[in-house]
Write a structure and sequence with these properties.
Structural class: alpha+beta
Shape: elongated
Number of strands: 6
Largest sheet: 4 strands, antiparallel
CATH superfamily of the largest domain: Ribosome-recycling factor
Number of domains: 2
CATH topology of the largest domain: Topoisomerase I, Chain A, domain 4
CATH class of the largest domain: Mainly Alpha
Order of helices and strands: HEEEEHEEHH
Strand order of the largest sheet: 3-4-6-5
Number of helices: 4
Radius of gyration: 22 Å
Strand content: 5-15%
Length: 185
């Protein structure tokens, strides 16, 4: 029973760390990266579809993303979707190919991005603490129902805290790496 609680806890915490990693990949760093466009959805015949399902996305050089829609009538729809996103990018098209130049980040924009990264990281830490609280409550209810002894509960609570500390360090590492990436360009 204790092992089930601990394995569920670690799985939940790993999911949180992976979600943070995916979220940070969407943050702009001044370098072209196809994952910047991951959150953009376009209206494809009445259905909101991810951009990568209606076009080929490539990065021919570090400051440019190209989008080649599979259907020419999608060019203007894709352009509008990119412009209306919160990325602050201005796409250019020649009727067939959309080019998105990635401008270098200003010092002010870098600071804003770092704040945003820290906010997202703090949200992930809150999720970790919620997972810890849930695991602790489960362990305490097991002890209350006499399914485990008080000593077993205390050892398990220590393991829960150790797992939480481990994942907090992992999340802080992800945040620091992204901050460094944003500030170094």
């Amino acid at each position: 029973m204790i092992n089930d609680v601990l394995s569920d806890l670690k799985a939940s915490m790993e999911d949180t760390a992976e979600a943070l990693s995916r979220e940070l990949a969407k943050r702009r760093t001044g370098r072209a990266n196809v994952s910047l466009l991951d959150g953009i959805k376009v209206d494809y015949y009445g259905t909101l579809s991810p951009l990568n399902q209606v076009a080929a996305i490539q990065v021919p050089d570090p400051r440019l993303i190209t989008i080649k829609p599979w259907e020419k009538n999608m060019v203007s729809v894709i352009e509008k979707a990119v412009m209306s996103s919160s990325l602050g990018l201005n796409p250019n098209s020649d009727g067939e190919l959309i080019r998105i130049p990635i401008p270098p980040l200003t010092g002010e924009r870098r600071k804003e991005l770092v704040k945003d990264v820290k906010r997202v990281g703090e949200d992930a830490k809150v999720a970790l603490r919620n997972h810890r609280r849930d695991a602790n409550e489960m362990l305490k209810s097991l002890e209350k129902d006499k399914e485990i002894s008080e000593d077993e509960m205390r050892r398990a609570l220590t393991k829960v805290q150790e797992a939480t500390d481990e994942y907090v360090k992992k999340i802080e590492g992800l945040i620091e790496a992204k901050e460094k990436e944003i500030l170094e360009d």
